[in-house]
Specification:
This protein has 252 residues and is an alpha/beta fold.
C-alpha cells in the first residue's frame, strides 16, 4: 500500500489550463480500471473526488486508502465529498465528515456537493468553509452547486461547479455575467451524455464560458433493475480521446 503523506505542493499551485476534475468514480473494487487510469503519467487532472460511502463511511476503507494514496503520490489533489443536501445537513455533521476524511485519507480539500446557491444560505456555507480551512491547512474547497449561485459564493471557495447536467442542456447554456470578473480556474463544469462526435463542441463551450476544470462523459443517468445509475461512476468511452485533447491543450 502506498505511503500517504501531506504535501503542500498539492495545494499551493493554481489551476492554469483546462484539466479534469473527477466527480467520483465507483468504489475501487467496482471500478479498478478507472482508478488505475488516474495515475497515468501526464493525465491532465486537477483533482479527484473520493466518495467512500456517501461521504467518508463509518470506518477506514483500505481499498479507498490505497487508491487515494496512489493518486496523491502521483501529485494530484484528492478531495473528500461532503454532501450538504442543499443546506439540509447540520454544521456538526459536515465537520464530522471532514475530520474523518482528514484522519483516514489525508485529503487535500473538499467538494461540498449539492451546495445551496441562494443568498440566504451563504452565511452557513461560509461558516463551514472557514472551519474546513482551519482543519486542513491549504485545503482546496469546491462548491458543487451545479448551477450559477449568488455571486457572493465565489468569494469563499477556490472553485465553483456552475454546471452539472446533460449535454442537451449544456450545449445551449450561458454563463452568468458576473463570472466574467473571475478567471477560468475558478469554475468547473460536469456534463454527461456527450456523444463522441460532440466532444470538441463541448470543449469549446467550456472555453467560451470560462471553465478550466471539466468532466465530460458519454455515460447517462438511466434506470435499470438495480435502480438509477450515476453517470460519474464509470469512465467515459472516449477517455483516451479526452485525455489526449486536453493534455495537449484545447484547440482554438
Amino acid at each position: 500500500m502506498p505511503h500517504l503523506t501531506r504535501r503542500k505542493a498539492l495545494t499551493a499551485g493554481t489551476v492554469q489550463r483546462t484539466g479534469l476534475g473527477i466527480p467520483g468514480f465507483a468504489h475501487p473494487l467496482l471500478a479498478p480500471t478507472e482508478w488505475g487510469e488516474l495515475t497515468r503519467p501526464g493525465a491532465p487532472l486537477h483533482w479527484v473526488v473520493l466518495d467512500v460511502a456517501d461521504g467518508p463511511g463509518v470506518r477506514p476503507d483500505p481499498h479507498c486508502l490505497e487508491a487515494a494514496g496512489r493518486i496523491r503520490n502521483a501529485g494530484v489533489r484528492v478531495l473528500g465529498r461532503i454532501d450538504t443536501r442543499y443546506g439540509g445537513r447540520g454544521f456538526d455533521e459536515a465537520l464530522s465528515d471532514a475530520r474523518r476524511f482528514l484522519d483516514w485519507y489525508q485529503v487535500d480539500g473538499f467538494l461540498l456537493d449539492h451546495c445551496p446557491a441562494d443568498r440566504d444560505d451563504l452565511p452557513e456555507i461560509r461558516r463551514i468553509t472557514t472551519t474546513l480551512r482551519a482543519l486542513g491547512e491549504g485545503a482546496h474547497i469546491v462548491y458543487g452547486h451545479g448551477t450559477h449561485p449568488y455571486p457572493g459564493y465565489a468569494e469563499n471557495a477556490d472553485q465553483l461547479v456552475t454546471f452539472s447536467g446533460p449535454w442537451s442542456d449544456y450545449r445551449w447554456s450561458q454563463a452568468a455575467e458576473w463570472t466574467a470578473d473571475y478567471p477560468p480556474e475558478r469554475f468547473c463544469h460536469f456534463v454527461h451524455g456527450i456523444p463522441l462526435g460532440h466532444l470538441d463542441e463541448a470543449l469549446r463551450v467550456a472555453r467560451w464560458q470560462g471553465a478550466a476544470t471539466i468532466y465530460f462523459t458519454d455515460r447517462t443517468h438511466r434506470t435499470d433493475r438495480g435502480g438509477r445509475t450515476d453517470p460519474w461512476e464509470s469512465m467515459p468511452g472516449y477517455w483516451d480521446e479526452i485525455v489526449s485533447r486536453i493534455g495537449t491543450g484545447v484547440s482554438e
